[in-house]
Amino acid sequence: MFILDGQGRQPLHNKICNQIKNQILTGELPPTTKLASIKNLSSELSVSRNTVEYAYQQLYAEGYIHSKPRSGYFVSPIDPEFRQSPLRQVCTSLKEGSEDGKSFAFDFHPARLSPGSFPVNLWRKLYIDCLKDDQNHLASDGNQQGDFDLRCEIQRYLSRSRGVSCDPEQIVVCSGLQDSLSILAPILKEDHSKLAVEDPGYFVPKAVFRNHSFSITTVSVNSDGLDLECLQNTKSTVVYVTPSHQFPLGYVMPVTKRLKLIDWAESVGGVIIEDDYDWLYKMIR
Questions:
Q1: Listed GO molecular functions (predicted)?
Q2: How many degrees, rounded to 5, is the angle at CA 13 between CA 204 and CA 68?
């Protein structure tokens, strides 16, 4: 089991490497154990394949693992004198966590939703319908950009709900924010080197872009979102914003300020990464 957090400045591939190394040294991963494939582990952790590959390469270089052609990576034998005692871990189960929440009238944890808010029955029905309709399609290798039918549905949804005019070819489906930023960062790195992020703000963008050697600058947030004057002083050319529901303060950026942000991007030849987090919800103060 892997636990990745945003604390500290340690790159994600180092965190993965150190956790696997600890599992090997404590005997949790005994010699000859086959490690998860790069593809599977990156999907499990919602990180890019490059991140996992860097971690495996480091373990390989240090002699903790070895590779077999067309088979993958395996744990190498470690001299018993270098093994450690298993680390004691204190875990709180999901059930215990949910029971703790019952003592509060309102649970403001951003990662917890009301159990009754998800349409389980409808989701189950649609899932079964999809399995019945086209089993051959589900068993085939998918498009790296995302299933084309799904992208068509997203295109229609964006047009209907957000007034966004785009083609399915302009849509890329990723396995979460961290994965999408891990794809985007090396592309932007070709022409940009400085990223501005909201302060306070979500830790993931900072971690991902720092892992790709970007210079990170924080920009203060006021009651109508990002402070544009402060942004201009940073000399950054890429900015990450959550305008519809600023995380974690919940502020909404008005249209006039969004237009000014676009003007800023045009003036510096910059890029706006808009995380439309929670736009479906209307925050009423």
A1: DNA binding; DNA-binding transcription factor activity; pyridoxal phosphate binding; transaminase activity
A2: 145
Residues 150 and 227 in one domain: no
Distance CA 91, CA 71 (A): 33
146 has a pLDDT exceeding 80: yes
Angstrom distance (rounded) from CA 154 to CA 148: 10
In a domain, 72, yes or no: yes
Pair 161, 220 in one domain = no
pTM: 0.60
* 164, 243: one domain: no
Q: Which two tokens stand for residue 161?
A: 């709900």
Tally of structural domains, the chain: 3
pLDDT digits (tens, 9 = 90+) for 256-280: 999 999 999 999 999 999 998 877 7
Q: Please, which residues bridge with residue 68 across strands?
A: 72
Q: Is residue 239 part of a domain?
A: yes
pLDDT over 70 at 143, yes or no: yes
Which tokens sit at 56? 């495996």
